[in-house]
Amino acid sequence: MSPCNVLLAGRPEPMGSQVRDGGVNFAVFSQHALRVQLCLFDADGQRELQRHDLFGPDDGVFHGFLPGAAAGLVYGLRAHGPYEPRAGHRFNPNKLLLDPNAREIVGQFSWRAEHHGYTLGHADGPASFDERDNAALALKARVAAPSGVVAAALNAPRHATADLVLYEVHVKGFSKAHPDIPAALQGTYAGLAHPAAIAHFKSLGVTTLSLLPVQYCLDEPALRGRGLTNYWGYNTLGFCCPDPRLATQRDDPAAVTAEFRQMVASLHAHGLEVVLDVVYNHTPEGNEWGPTVSFRGLDNASWYRLETVDRSRCENLSGCGNTLRVAHPKVTQFVLDSLRYWVQEMGVDGFRFDLAPVLGRTEHGFDANAPFFVALRQDPVLARVHLIAEPWDGGSNGYQVGRFPGRFLDWNDKFRDAVRGYWLRRGVDRGEFARRFTASSDLFHHDGRRPGASVNFLAVHDGFTLADVVSYSRKHNQANGEDNRDGRDGETCANFGVEGPTDDAAINGQRQRLRRAMMATLLLAQGTPMLCAGDEIGNSQQGNNNAYCQDNATGWLDWSVADHRFKDFVAQLLALRRAEPAQRSNDWSSQSPGQHGPQRRWRRPDGQEMLTPDWHAQEQQAFACELRCTVGEANGYTGPQRLLLVFNPEPAPVRFTLDLGRWQLLLDSSGELMPSDMLETSLLASAQAVLVLRASV
């Protein structure tokens, strides 16, 4: 059935395009446009066939119904209105615009002058007006076939927060060089769900994959000029489209979507959850000098935060040129609609919000009760999924760790810095280390938040890998083409005498010992642990701590040199975490019997309880944590439990006096003492090691 030549009045919801009643309904938001046109194209998106004025606006929504239209129809939008940059308006009907709610995107984007609403090189800059039509070169939306709620959304594993073990992973980077995954599937959604990949995840004991961005993104023009790409994908344009670069059939948007859904379903079948890293803080349109691709042309003043004094300029809280105005009701609706789509129609289990304070910024700064957070927390679909915040952005007062509301979990960089600093002897005392090891109560013990709200990590995608933390003393980002200016300066790290790889057995032994101690700290700490993919096999990025543009061997996991002994050690730690209920308690610890939650006692090596001066003493850093769990506590555990966790960052063994009883050694991260050894009065704790003992009852 071919579309009718007459557009009828449609419904102002849902947003985007929807197949219904023998045709397709279109709805698009623009508060300030005077007219919005629907432009229909041939299947290749090269020739414009029809142009229709949409009806409305009704509450800022233009709409129309096209009888006879069906899935597969290719279209774009043109918005008419004032071109008044000083007032924040940049309407230019010569520019074909992508529907923000597009479920399928066709075409290949290239950075051409015609995509700008102003004339490049003009003396007036962004205040000038470009009359060239960019339709032949622009990305277009394609009407998607109805899907409804997919089975993966109905059969999700739904792991409780107390049981979560996050695994941050890049879809392509994990499998691109994996020898047991067929070449045709390497680097794809299908590759991440291949039996070899699933076997790895299951053998580790992780519960939840936290995927780096998978929504449709564009490469920045500066990267293209250097022959590089935005490998990580933090530059989203299509917020309801999986990135075709990660699919086996890149040229078929429907096939890309199907492959993503099948990936989620396969992971769910093996008890693995999928969380998406989502970027609702900016778009690829950049600052006022950027192109007009979608949001800017539809309603720049509504979609973006603009400078108060000069509304021709974008407010840049993201560090990427612009900032989405999530406080606007329609932008809030857009984000929520997108999130629901990924849950209901793609099956995912939650979201990690990049630069999350942007979502809670009102005209008065960050607000934990901002309209977006209120709407998110009461949404019946999103109420059941994981919500994780990267709790900082690029604006003033942008550091908000511990301030996110309700069920949110926050990335806790203070844990990373304290653990690295303690083991690398960089001035972190026992008090700071203990505070971070017990879920940072100074940040999270308020308003009903639980210890699991602290997402603990040693390394993530931006920064050194764990192997590089103990192999380099400075960043080596020259391959990024920015003269080593990019990436975080001053990471807590050490090379132990040689920068990078070495054949020195003593240095390699030191590095291995400290990697094991830090990993043990992460996976035995209270809170939600998160592994950076590849750390379990000793993956290195050769000192590059900002490999966002390294779609090559630097950014991919190198399985050819995988450290399988370390991988087995990580699996052993996670098995210990699961087996000892007090280790994964999601209750705050107490100091007195009878109070809710596990009881903790902190002890000096001589067995005496830590006193106030001991916490900050610099001459001795070794100490121990005795953990007691009474009957009925710790997630259903029905017996008494006593654990002793010993921390010795000193370069020599330290003698610890044990409390009365018989103690069984469960773990020595150094590997020098064998598990199952029974001890009664004292323990010579290995140097630079974590040890775990359990009282025999």
Brief summary of the model shown:
By secondary structure, the chain is α/β, with parallel strands linked by helices. 21% of the residues lie in helices and 21% in strands.
Question: Your description of this structure?
Answer:
With 697 residues, this protein is α/β, with parallel strands linked by helices. It has 16 helices and 31 strands. An eight-stranded parallel barrel has the order 12-13-16-17-20-21-22-23. A hairpin with a 6-residue loop joins strand 3 (35-41) and strand 4. Helix 10 (413-423) packs across helix 11 and helix 14 (505-524) runs parallel beside helix 15 (564-579). The longest helix is centred in the last third of the chain and has 20 residues, at 505-524. The protein is elongated, with a radius of gyration of 27 Å. Mean pLDDT is 95; it is low at 631-637.
First and last CA, distance = 77 Å
Strand line-up across the major sheet = 12-13-16-17-20-21-22-23
Q: What is the alpha-carbon Rg in Å?
A: 27 Å
Strand content: 15-25%
> Could you say which overall geometry the principal axes of the C-alpha atoms support?
elongated
Mean pLDDT: 95
